[in-house]
Amino acid sequence: MIAYIEPYFLDNDADAASVTGQSFDGVSESLHIQGEILCGGAATDIAGKDFGGMNCVKPLAVVRPVGPEDIAGAVRAALRSDKLTVAARGNGHSINGQAMAERGLVLDMRSTAENHFEVGYLPGGAFVDVSGGALWENVLKRCVSEYGLAPRSWTDYLGLTVGGTLSNAGVGGQAFRYGPQTSNVTELDVVTGNGDVVTCSEVENSELFFSVLGGLGQFGIITRARVLLQPAPDMVRWIRIVYTEFDEFTRDAEWLVSQKDESSFDYVEGFVFVNGDDPVNGWPTVPLHPDHDFDPTQLPQSSGSVLYCLELALHYRDSDSNSTVDKRVERLIGRLRFVEGLRFEVDLPYVDFLLRVKRAEEIAKVNGTWETPHPWLNLFVSKRDIGEFDRTVFKELAKNGVGGPMLVYPLLRSRWDDRASVVLPEGEIFYIVALLRFVPTCAKTSSFEKMVAQNQEIVQWCVRKGIDFKLYLPHYKSREEWIRHFGNRWSRFVDRKTMYDPMAILSPGQKIFNRAP
Ligand SMILES: Cc1cc2nc3c(=O)[nH]c(=O)nc-3n(C[C@H](O)[C@H](O)[C@H](O)COP(=O)(O)OP(=O)(O)OC[C@H]3O[C@@H](n4cnc5c(N)ncnc54)[C@H](O)[C@@H]3O)c2cc1C
User: Where are its TM segments located (predicted)?
Assistant: First the structure.
């Protein structure tokens, strides 16, 4: 393939537009790759941009693999060349080009989405084997409709692939109880950077298993994941309660996530919003139903520029009576110190609750902001420093909003497996913070640049002040920054790279290692 595509593409680079859409079927056959290979404009259309919309690259080719053998074939072809890289691309929902490969091969993992779907039962409980390229949304729908079962830990938005979120962590409102998605898989099939196809788990090839989980695509390409399941509830009571004081918000949130399993809500998240009627970040964004109004006269005079909201959910069955559900909710909520009168709730089917962000996606697609850049910033901040973070970032830098949701909620370190590659702040409790910025379609370039600059300012402030933080979905350009990010885990990360991808072929878009010549 390299002998054929690389010289062709490089020689014709200036005329790349003229090969737009050309499919290299003959090449696939000569290389025994069964899947389709696309070059030129067709490859750039698929893999030249991501959801972040801030990076543009030209891949050499996009391969649509049929299965692990095609993936291993692409990796081995790259190994035979002296500069080629390979990026698995899930659904391309990264922000900073992490799934891109400038002049490299991009594997469009969505073509493998249907390769696995098998539910099984072990003494530890039910599981489903799914493809690395499957969308979580489809995993949810099939598990619930065909088996009445569901994975335990979710991201907020499900238009993401299994391999994409497992390469990071996969964090949502269930993670306080079950850990991130990486803590909810028991076995993987992986194609390493050596071109080997390996099955791994906690007991079989365990170093590879834990390397790949949260491994930023650096050690192998996940083709199959075994995901733990639980019985799916029928319904969810979805609740939002409002706070004016950050310390009361964090005290209640930490209390809720520290309760024993089954004695708390099934989902706990939180967000910050602007104390005003801004349609993007303010009061109107809090109620859960169009008939509910946010009544600002309920707020005390002392409330500041931003407010906080705990978002909670309780699972139940159709057979549970209303009064049983009410009692379970009141037992927990009665202990919380939110602003009286600022409580919103709706009941909805479990699947609709998990697909709630899809509605936001549809709206953003209609108003055009799904396509504009998304300079998002995601961090983990230690409990020790979250108060200072609130005072400087939420109350000052972001007090007028960030153009989209601002999430902040606590997680428990003990629910994460230290052997996985992801790095966390110190201490049992830490917070995930997400500034999910959307750029309006009519905005000037300067407003987008200001958002990027503000993200940098926040990260630099964290470093300067010695805030105990880690970027989630990290994005750094220099080796020094990566070394600082991994801290005392850097040498483990490097050792794993040496073992599983010594030529640094995989996921070049993370910009951690340079391709070895
Ligand atoms: C609207 C939206 C909402 C989000 N909500 C959440 C959330 O609630 N919680 C959360 O944790 N994250 C969330 N994310 C972030 C998301 O989890 C990551 O961006 C994730 O990487 C996206 O998955 P993807 O399939 O698009 O991966 P891509 O962006 O395609 O890839 C991400 C990285 O993983 C690698 N990769 C992809 N597939 C594989 C594979 N099969 N094997 C090995 N490596 C692979 C890529 O090379 C790349 O380095 C959200 C993102 C968006 C856009």
Answer: none
